[in-house]
């Protein structure tokens, strides 16, 4: 019945956030250029002329020390390989396009927020965690901008209020002097049941016994106590596969714990 309601209310929305996309694309291009320059430099350094003008490429791969390998082995002990991706969602969002609109929809099954993409795909959800596995970084920031634009002057309640709160904690609470400061108090009483990484969008979540879920960008530092960080490591990070992102997150957290 929800799909029928969505179909009646749905039409193609191609209202792309040009500013966000252009900014992110330019960042990606700059990054690619830098990488290309580095590769060109490596190639120039790694060439040697033979007699007759022929050029021989000399491979210069950085060898990892045994301590690096041992360190990775230790980091891997903090990982739990699990499966939490929805096959159906993966098929629907296989050819992704930009999020064109966010809309609240009421149906006999209840109220939902619906993400409409420019290619016609849509996804109904109640909580941010339900769509992280089909999100990339662009989706996250676009959703944040849409929520801020559409609901900045609206009194939110229910799941919409929870979603906006989750986004604000994730995007804003890593800075000092913000309204989320009080949220991080009382960490000694937080009982973690899940620590999970969604690699496609670079978000990890903490889920607690009382149902609270905290969403955090992997590259940002949040005001987490060393005791809580250690409990996260002891619990183990749920991932779908071993990856550089997962191991780097473990390494980053261990560094925070070791800081004096």
Automatic annotation (TrEMBL):
What domain of life is recorded for the organism? Eukaryota
UniProt-annotated stretches for the region Disordered: 25-70
Indicate, by first and last residue, each region the UniProt record lists as having compositional bias (Basic and acidic residues): 25-40
Q: Where is the composition biased (Basic residues)?
A: 48-64
Give the protein's recorded name: Uncharacterized protein
